[in-house]
Amino acid sequence: MTNKEIIERIDRSIAEEFEIDPEEMKPEKTLFLDLGLDSLDIVDLVIVLETAFRFKIREEEGIRKIRTLGDIHAFVIQKKNELESIPR
Amino acid sequence: MPLKRVVITGMGALSPFGRGVDTLMNALLLGESGVRILPELADIRGIRTRVAALVPGVDPGEIPRKYRRSMSAMSVFAALAAGDAIAQAGLSGEQVRGGRLGVSIGSTIGSPRTTQAFFDDFRTDNSVERMKSGVFFHIMNHSCAANVTHMFGITGRTVAPAAACSTGSLAVGYGAEMISMGKQDFMLCGGADEFHPLTAATFDIMNAASTRFNESPGRTPRPFDRDRDGVVCAEGSGILLLESLDSALRRDAEILAEIVGFASTSDPESIANPNAANIAHCMRQALLDAGIGPAGIDYLNAHATGTELGDIAESEAIRSVFGDRVPTSSLKGNLGHAMAASGALELEASVEMLRREILLPTHNLDHVDPLCASVTHVRGVTRRRVDTVMKNNFALGGVNSSLIIRRFRR
């Protein structure tokens, strides 16, 4: 999966779950102020990402630093890279 | 401390006929049935009933996601009905949010659909890792009441009575008492439930669900009829806006009816079976509360669900309190039994009967059961001015309730 495909899947999953206009899905948008999410939504956001990418991230420290949609893109791409670099 | 008079100034309904009290009344006046064949019931082993009365045409999307995410179907019904009641009453934003409006809305249980969905997923691998944040808010017992307060920004009291089939009536009665005592000026009161096979099965396993009209759903349930064979489960919500008379007069609000009496009694004889003497006691207590005698009631809207035992017990009780002089009907022949919503929906129709000066008959009452014949049944739409109406509801668990409403007079 390319980074572009990862970003597209993130944006599509989040827009669908939280009923956000796809036009709003810009990397600089903040989750709380711009996209209108709140702390309960963040609980569900984690599940949406875990389901979309089949990984577990709930306990990751990095999640707490996420502020913008772009932060999510970077977090997921990094997580995917980490998992793929682990020898199987 | 003098008690305040309590009036109804707004009503909202989500019934098996759709949205709105006018929609409900139009269908009742035409003698329509909201009962339909539910094909998916045929896929459930052991259940014999195949019919139910569901709410058609609801668009949950009209509720913003922020509020909808914590709502199952029953809360959606309650929220839409509550919004319509507030709109009819014409409350301002300040009146809604200012702390003098409270909520008394109950359901039989929290969302059975969400409960099932959670356990379906949980049992696949004994995991809660996929549990969404909204699950608890759907299945908590005060889901409907809490969702209504959040959607409208209500800051007064929240109570969520739960007494199965009596829930809607109890919610109205307790709400009226809060206003009467001056604790709130306005209360949104009523009940809501969403259909789930569990509800139908509850009656079916006790041989109290209708099973003989699975191919002709409009002919069941049949309250008071000799061929009745049980309950047909329904869903929906009825929400009424109650208000102190002082407040309604100050606002120059249209007063739909006054609530003048309420009683609720417990029936420890049986957790499931109704008892005529205890039902009669409840009705007498409501008359005492209203300060009127049996002759003061002009029409009785019965609980009468179409079960063998319940309809006979209520008939005997009505006879013992009123003799045979009070015209009586049950609306469950049209609506089915909307559980926690039934009392409120039927109360709303009773308010409209007062206002429109008509009495609605019991749908499907073709041949009165001789054991229910001690009551004067309304057999067709009847033009008659009635001033005072009693509304009965009785619940599994042994919770009886009777409300009395009256045409408003200063």
Describe the secondary structure blueprint for this structure.
The complex is a heterodimer of chains A (88) and B (410).
Chain A: H1 3-17, H2 39-53, H3 69-85
Helix pairs in contact in A: 1-2, 1-3
Chain B: E1 6-15, E2 18-19, H1 21-29, E3 36-37, E4 51-52, H2 65-68, H3 73-89, H4 93-97, E5 101-106, H5 112-125, H6 135-139, H7 143-152, E6 158-159, H8 167-180, E7 186-193, H9 197-205, E8 236-244, H10 245-251, E9 257-266, H11 276-290, E10 299-301, H12 308-322, E11 327-329, H13 332-335, H14 342-356, E12 358-359, E13 376-377, E14 382-383, E15 388-395, E16 399-406
Parallel strand pairs in B: 5-6, 5-7, 10-11, 10-15, 11-13
Antiparallel strand pairs in B: 1-2, 1-8, 1-9, 3-4, 7-8, 9-16, 12-14, 15-16
Helix pairs in contact in B: 3-7, 8-14, 11-12
How would you describe this structure in keywords?
heterodimer; A: 88 residues; mainly alpha; Non-ribosomal Peptide Synthetase Peptidyl Carrier Protein, Chain A; 3 helices; B: 410 residues; alpha/beta; Peroxisomal Thiolase, Chain A, domain 1; 2 domains; two-stranded antiparallel sheet; 14 helices; 35% helix
